[in-house]
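Ticket #4471: structure export looks truncated?
Reporter: QA, pipeline team
Priority: medium

Steps to reproduce: submit the single chain below to the structure queue and open the exported record.
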Amino acid sequence: MRRYLLRVEGVNLAASLDDTQDLGATQGASLALLNAPEAVRQHGARQGTRLEPIYVGASQGLFRFEAESDDAAEDVAEAARGFLVGSGVVFSHLSFVVDVEPIGADEERAKERVLARNRRRQVQTLTVRLPEPNATATDPCVIDRVRPGVEADREGLVSASVKARRQYRRGHRDAFYHSTIGLAAGLRPRWADDFLGLVSAPPRPANEAIRDKLALIYFDGNRFGKIREDVKNDRQFSEALLELRRGLMAALLAPNGGLVESRFFRDNAEDPDDPETPRLPLETLVWGGDEMLWAVPAWLAVPLVGAFFKQSREWKIGGHRLTHAGGVVIGSYKTPVRQMIALAHQLADNAKGDRSRSALQIEILESLDIPDGYLDRQRRRRFDPNHTVTDQAAFSALFTLGDEEWGKLIEAVKTARKHFPRSQLYRLLFAARDQGGFLDSNGVAARAKELAQVIADNGYREITADTLLGPPPVADATDGRLLRLAAIAGLWDYVDPVTAAAGDVA
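Actual output as written to the record:
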């Protein structure tokens, strides 16, 4: 018997995660992609092949197994492909690649080769799973507007893909939160059916500005692949990472002391379909591997980011510190989720400059139009039209907030709201916009002087210019203090929204 590797991965994810504005279809696809490698392992066991997990995470699974020959090993891979395509469940609506490779004398090289086989197979595969031909379908799916509408659902006729993904979510979301994440058995979340339901139960009285606002919060691990190689045990790394993330979710979802109030959970006697029942304000859209993506109401975004930084601050595996780069996007729940996810990814990529620490960038959208692919260009136009900072990487880094910087910014928002008029804040920002931008050193100095004068003239004793602007830059660094002032204005309504509803200081 010879030893082989089998690698399975869900690919072309945009065709199933970003193709609709439907929470059920999106999360159903995410759960199916997460569960697919284990389903392949179980199918192999039923066929008499023991697939030993090396690594399972997100939509990927890597297994060892034994076979008598290369042809027999390829039969195992073909059986897995047939199961995923023809299982009659949600997997047949998603895209997967499955390949095998002899281990030989060097397992690490074999891992590289089987990954290369997956990538080759991916580029030879259509990016979208084509639906079965249907001669009776006359209209497109009312949800994805592309595939034929062939299945009855609450809005009308939907595609087989949307129907299957929604059903998979309903059948597996409880198991995901209890088995994978480790939610206490006695806690049963009340689930939202769509993004409107997710944002529809803000704390009361909440600021009107945050109503119907959705936040997508994305974190991507820094150099996790390299750390996994250094640990030299894929399974140990993935299991240790899962335990750390379970601890994070336990902190987020604990009804007493967590971020989510007890009113979002129910006991067995309650009716989960009651439209008046408040829905759990946190949905996990991506989980596993290096990435996490949550959808939450805007009022939960700031505390969730703070909790993530706090919980992950001391994360280590095998002596290696784990850090993340994040992207936070806040906008209307009607904003196309595909574009919001893409923007969150771009923000996280921008935050990866210093990978020795966890950091993020945030973008708050004031309309349905978002900078799809033109984030840096839009920021230039708003904050540095004269290209005071010529290096693009250096300019982008000015918007990155590390753990400590995030905490200080949130405290500055709270202090400003108590002791400084919002109208004065906007007056200073408009002056910066109209007089050379936010990064011109002379303009920054002038605005700082104005701010200090406003504070002195009005007798605001509980606040100083440095409270709002932060300390001056060191040496020859770019003076980005007015960007901090803009961030305070942007986050004004989203920090402690119940307190914000009381209004500005006189």
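Status: closed, not a bug. The export was complete when the record was re-opened. Leaving a note from the reviewer for reference: Residues 114 and 316 are 29 Å apart (CA to CA).
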